[in-house]
């Protein structure tokens, strides 16, 4: 089979799945469920295959990427797979010296803080991430009708790691650049929008069914600043992949005040954390978009009855939505009991079966 027809096959097989239908706001047989960070340390089979292999090395091995991506699909029966990788993979691929430190997150050896530093952010070519193309091909062949979600980090969230040099709670250097040198900031997020767009296009060309843009830390900004300094770059990313017609999901944490703008940036599906109930979120986002979310991941540490009661609340708030993809309000925490996740998938399917 030619590469082109293989890519078509993966997307065609998954086209009528509950997840794809919910993203398109079509009727569904049950509310589809997947979890951010469903592949990862909560699974013993993940910890086993990752033993002794650094995170970024594992992202560059198609055999491992395929196995790890499939693990939560097999175990939990989720309605979608998310490609195992990381938001910093494309930056590593263009030669930025960075690492993912366990328990910390991405750490950048030489932060980007001046105009001269921008030259280090060259464009991403598909050949820089050929292991991604290979792994997506292997996965769509294995997944059959289960859709595969590709993803990338949004310009603001990537810029925050590059400027701060690692995770931050306050984003002081990032904000110092935004407010102190808005032209440098605009040029930086423009470079990152090009890299992110290229990374998403590689995944779509290889056959993913949908893409999610993670602007995890955008909630640090006030709406007016988000609109002025961040939204245009994210909108360029959504525009760059619009022609493929695959659903585009836009997610951030603590973004209750930004939900309308995140929809406006071009998403088909807006991800919502647990701080805003979905019936309020839909008022903020407006018509014509599906919502994804939004059980607090910490709820999974409570007894089963409490998890079901909180899940009932999410499903009740979702009742009037045009399209709902059930998810957590942020990623699965590493110490979560995997059986609680498996039970949650079954519970949502049962409660929403039509
Ligand atoms: O299952 C999935 O969701 C797919 C894989 C995935 C990973 N990272 C794997 C990973 C996805 C979608 C991401 C995105 C990502 N990476 C985001 C956006 C999502 C979010 O959480 O808001 C961000 C901010 C990052 C940056 C990053 N990478 C962090 C903060 C960490 C955690 C550091 C730690 O050890 O606590 C990572 C590492 C990482 N990425 C792990 C995984 C499974 C843990 C690595 C390990 O197993 O040691």
From TrEMBL:
Primary localization: cytoplasm
A GO cellular-component term linked to this record: cytosol
Top-level taxon of the source organism: Bacteria
Record: residues binding substrate: 37-41, 86, 161, 216, 330
Enzyme type, top EC level: lyase
Residues the record marks as site: Transition state stabilizer: 86
Record keywords, A-Z: Cytoplasm, Decarboxylase, Lyase, Porphyrin biosynthesis
Pathway info: Porphyrin-containing compound metabolism; protoporphyrin-IX biosynthesis; coproporphyrinogen-III from 5-aminolevulinate: step 4/4
Subcellular location: Cytoplasm
Assembly information from the UniProt record: Homodimer.
Family: Belongs to the uroporphyrinogen decarboxylase family.
Role description: Catalyzes the decarboxylation of four acetate groups of uroporphyrinogen-III to yield coproporphyrinogen-III.
Protein's name in the database: Uroporphyrinogen decarboxylase
Species this chain originates from: Streptomyces olivoverticillatus
Lineage: Bacteria, Bacillati, Actinomycetota, Actinomycetes, Kitasatosporales
